[in-house]
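User: Quick sanity check before I run a bigger batch. Here is a single chain. Can you write out its predicted 3D structure?
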Amino acid sequence: MDQLKLAALDAEDLQVVSAHVQDAVVKLADMHWQPAEQRFMLVVNRFVWDSVTGKRQRQYERRRSALHFNRVMAVRSSGIDRSNKDAVLELLALAFEESEAPAGQLTLVFAGGGAVQLDVECIEAQLADLGAAWATDNKPEHDLDEA
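Assistant: Done. Predicted structure follows.
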């Protein structure tokens, strides 16, 4: 498969990007807020869900990918120990709640209750793979009974 490159300019686009970054893992040190550029970016190891055939596989894939958001006015986090830069977080979803169209809050939802909330003028996000995939034996699984 060729390297993935996606852009999101509305909530529907953001759902597509969210599906592609579901279960991505990211080190806290790989998340950066650039207030002067109004940009929040992170480099993740995303699980390649579109390579899953549905039947039990021996190996799956992950890819190093860059995800960034433009027109970000403020960033807040909750449930994340920001002092531990080596902490690894599992990204579950991207969510958007509109306030005054097209502005709103874009939230990166992490496993364990952590979240990063971005105040954005509008949705402007990009996801791009940075290189080749590598094999992993582990497929992310979620206990839906706990949700």
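Helices lie at 11-21.

User: Great, the batch can go ahead then.
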